[in-house]
Amino acid sequence: MHLSPDEVVFWRYGWLTINATIAYTWALMALLAVGSLLITRNLSTGIERSRWQNFLEIVVSGIVKQIEEVGLRRPRAYLGFLGTLFLFIAAANLCTVIPGYEPPTGSLSTTLALALCVFVAVPLFGIEEQGLRGYLRSYLEPTVIMLPFNVISELSRTLALAVRLFGNMMSGAMILAILLTITPFLFPIVMTLLGLLTGMVQAYIFSILAAVYIAAATQVSEPKLAPHPEAEP
Q1: CA–CA distance from 150 to each of 141, 154, 157, 221 (Å)?
Q2: What are φ and ψ of residue 190, in 5° steps?
Q3: 26 Cβ neighbours under 8 A, 6+ residues apart
Q4: pTM listed for this prediction
Q5: Pick from 68, 85, 88, 86: which is nearest to 77 by CA?
Q6: DSSP conformational letter for 146
Q7: Spatial distance between the Cα atoms of 218 and 140, rounded to a whole number of angstroms
């Protein structure tokens, strides 16, 4: 039983090592890239559409709706980033039904890389929406005293994103491996189905949290209006 796909080494030459995390991550990226090219090359704008196109439009519309409900005013501007996060994590977790497959999300290095992507994207989107001065001013709200706490919060939530996804995926794999040794017939099937559901939930939670962080960074604070002279006693 492996605690992490990092422990499964496929090839090693000196300092260069290709483990299951690297191999399956690149395989997933290639699968998603090639699949998107094949599916989108014959898109139709008319009434007659393929089942794949209808299915993908439902998925994209659902993601856009979720982004909008979080509070982002221009959901399609964030669809590429948040949608890619969701699809990658969901595909990584769904492929666990393939024998011998090790989900890269079971490695802390992968989940930390995904969390760092969110960590970099949040200020970029915030600066794009508010400008550099407006975004930096958000660290001083409600008072200047909150500056160190806001910075610590930014760093801690990145670590929390990585550890949450890693912990849930690793624990699921360990429980499945233990049940496979004890009861090799019925329970592993049930746990595999439960693991697929958990994987989709984790993909959803990770993407929604990223959307919430972006929404907080892109929220333009309303300027404080001076009281009208006539209103003063």
Answers
A1: 9, 6, 11, 16
A2: -60, -45
A3: none
A4: 0.81
A5: 68
A6: G
A7: 15
